[in-house]
Amino acid sequence: MMPKKILVVEDNEQNRILMRQILNYHGYEVLEAADGAAGLEMAKKHMPDLILLDLQMPVMGGFAVIRDLRKTPELSKLKVIAVTSFAMKGDREKALEAGFDEYVTKPIDTRKFAEIVKNILPSDKITLKNPIILCVDDEPANLKLFENILVPRGYEVVSAANGEDALAKIKTRTIDLILLDLMLPGMDGLQVSRKIKNNKKYKHIPIIMLTAHSGVESYIKSLSGELFAYLHKPFKAEELVRNVRVALGQ
Q1: What's the topology of domain 132-245?
Q2: Would the CATH topology of 5-120 be identical to that of 132-245?
Q3: Neighbours of 153 (CB within 10 A)
């Protein structure tokens, strides 16, 4: 069965990333637009199964988009969920009267959000895929440890022994999360993370940095724009799993 196609129309990049991660995890194909006008054009071109439409956007707001959708015959039956961070009493009713099928407030509750999407698409029978985690470490024992912790918990593990191997694996697989050792032969973890974050195709992938060296925590913390989190080795299995689940929005 082909995955359902969902168009996310949202001007805030971080919100798009969060919704993309949640939807990808549940097996949906995600399209994105950063403003209402672009979203309307993508809806005409791709005919998605569902549109997640922010109400406050530059160029063209959500209410203007829903008016155009509902008066365009070929688009009028598309399912559309209103998404907003400025929720006030009566706004939900106003959105439903305007033609939206459902109403979601930000910040998004990741569990409720997935359930709302599923309910809007009742015919969706997607089999949830296991999240794929790329583990990058030059120690075979550490790679085996990642596998022993993550696989029994429903994750698929892809291993890489160095930075070059990791970058090659990203190009051949759909990676949901990267566990990245700081000290690697050749290209170190920071160099690898920067190459990933400088690539528009892969910069959305969350990265958890791992290090056995003390004294680098403050430096790693300063890279909050590049890294989702960091863990100091040795770590407890529960600590790793907790960070993995948060990074994947579970």
Answers
A1: Rossmann fold (3.40.50)
A2: yes
A3: 13
The helix or strand, by DSSP H or E, that contains position 11, with its residue range, turns out to be none
**pLDDT in 10s for each residue of the chain, 250 residues:** 568 899 999 999 999 999 999 998 888 999 999 999 999 999 999 999 999 999 999 889 999 999 999 998 888 889 999 999 876 777 888 899 999 999 999 888 888 898 899 899 865 444 456 899 999 999 999 999 999 999 888 899 999 999 999 999 999 888 999 999 988 999 988 899 889 988 888 888 999 988 876 655 555 554 545 566 778 888 888 888 888 988 887 6
CATH architecture of the domain with residue range 5-120? 3-Layer(aba) Sandwich (3.40)
How many angstroms from the chain centroid is the CA of residue 3?
16
Domain ranges of the chain: 5-120, 132-245
Between helix 91-98 and helix 62-71 the angle, nearest 10°, is 30
Which residue shows structure tokens 């998004």? 108
Torsional sign, CA 31, 36, 37, 41: positive
* Separation between Cα atoms, residue 34 and residue 180, nearest integer Å: 30
CA distance 244 to 208: 8
Q: Spell out the residues 6+ positions from residue 18 whose beta carbon is closer than 8 angstroms to its own.
A: 108, 110, 249
- Find, among 89, 27, 91, the residue nearest to 56 by Cα: 91
Considering only CA atoms, give the Rg of the chain: 20
